[in-house]
Amino acid sequence: MKDAACRIALLPGDGTGPEVIRAGRRVLEAAAEGAAAPWTLEEYPAGALYYRDHGQEWAPGAEQAARSADAILLGAVGWPGVSLPNGDIAGAGLIFGLRFGLDLYANVRPCRLYPGVRHRISGKWKEVWTPENVDFVIVRENTEGLYTPVRGALTRGGATEVAIDTRVTTRKGAERVIRYAFDLSRRRARGAPEDHVRRVTCVDKANVLRGCQFFREVFEEVGAEYADIQREYAYVDAFTQWMVRNPEHYDVVVTTNMFGDIVTDLAAVLQGGMGFAAGGNIGAAHAMFEPVHGSAPKHAGKNEINPFATFFAIEMMLRWLGDRHGDGRLTRQADRVESAISKVLASGTARTYDQGGTVSTSDAGERVAEAVRSEGRA
Ligand code: IPM
Ligand code: MN
Q1: Cα(254)–Cα(116) distance, integer angstroms
Q2: 292 pocket-lining for ligand 1 (C-beta < 6 Å)
Q3: 10, 27, 267, 365: which could form a disulfide with 111 (CB 3.0–4.6 Å)?
Q4: Which residues surround ligand 2, an ion (CB under 5 A)?
Q5: Residue numbers annotated as active site
Q6: Distance from Cα 148 to the centre of ligand 1, integer Å
């Protein structure tokens, strides 16, 4: 067990980011009430708007502080019309700076529909997306693939004629994220909802792409070490329809960077929308947690954005810190946050606009914080 308290760096970022981080802070503080917190919070300004106003993406010292923290909680980055001189979105230095700089190779995105949460589509024959049916995790490779910064454009006489993005697959990159997926399947309580089988599905385009054939080869090699876990393959195009039609079949899904980016937004619809989608960017020694919705400029400043994705990100963060430092206090906090979230969701008393409700971001935060306190008293 670690002696000193863990340092958690909060990076609220842009748009709705500061609003959800403020609500999340209330939940974190509630989780620590009544005892010495096993963590300290530090907050740093950074992102696209900081860049617009100061000409750099990070406040002085913020990048180093975030990089040396035990965990990072990121709100969101990006703002329309604000980009870096090289054309990248301003805020890229946070999101990619940290993913690549801290080698956060696994982007872990759970997809679970909680009782009380509404989703927008219901089946005519049967309700396919029920809390019993939707409970899987997508593990997205996070440091290579099409996101490898090996790209460029050929500009002649002021006109761009060719642009190239290189899709890189390395043995190291594939192996570690695939291993992460199999280990995760082993840790999960029940396997796939359909049959309680532990199953890792490799999602790729191996019928066309050489990199995907290689990814599959590595998947076979690594998977052979896990005799208790079923191995399965799906082409990414077909997978999108199977995931929507039969979510109960999936336990853990592993895929490459760009495919993972796309399928996790689709998966979010199954769990009630982007307002519930949280992700952990996990490396061997560092991790960054975030709501996946982004800065959502059209909702910014209105105190209306759904903060539950941030609460789930907090739960993931506490659990990861608890495991990493062998500190049961953090794990118990994660359990309390999860239990509080699920009770508030089931009660339907904290529905934000996207759920057809009128509860504000800050009030949703207060409800969950209060529920966390009750868990502590129970
Ligand atoms: C995500 C986001 C990012 C990505 C953007 C903001 C660069 O869409 O985390 O899924 O493409 O990875
Ligand atoms: Mn995305």
Answers
A1: 28
A2: yes
A3: 267
A4: 261
A5: 147, 205, 237, 261, 265
A6: 13
For the chain, the straight-line distance linking the first and the last C-alpha, in angstroms and rounded, comes to 26
What is the model's pLDDT at position 207? 98
Q: Using the predicted structure, report yes or no on whether residue 122 has a pLDDT greater than 70.
A: no
Question: Which CATH entry fits the domain spanning 123-272: 3.90.1150.10, 3.40.720.10, 3.40.718.10, 3.40.50.10680?
Answer: 3.40.718.10
The residue type at 30? A
Please tell me the residue having the least CA distance from ligand 1 atom 10: 261
Residue nearest atom 11 in ligand 1 by C-alpha distance: 261
Q: Per residue in 156-173, pLDDT tens?
A: 999 999 999 999 999 999
For the chain, give every domain's residue range: 1-105+283-378, 123-272
Rounded distance from Cα 147 to ligand 1 centre (Å): 10
Residue nearest to atom 9 of ligand 1 (CA): 292
Name the closest ligand to CA 78: 1
Burial of 252 from C-beta contacts in 10 A (0-12 / 13-18 / 19+):
buried
Correct CATH for 1-105+283-378 of 2.40.160.50, 3.40.1190.10, 2.60.40.1930, 3.40.718.10: 3.40.718.10
Tell me the DSSP string of 275-321. GG-EEEEE-SS-EEEEETT---GGGTTTT-S--HHHHHHHHHHHHHH
Read off the pLDDT band of 304 (50, 70, 90).
very high
DSSP-derived 3-state class of residue 183: helix
Check for a shared fold between 1-105+283-378 and 123-272.
yes
Instruction: Report the separation in Å between the CA atom of 33 and the middle of ligand 1, taken as the mean of its atom positions.
Output: 34
Q: What is the mean pLDDT of the chain?
A: 96
| Residue 302 pLDDT exceeds 90 | yes
Cβ proximity of 185 and 252 under 8 Å: yes
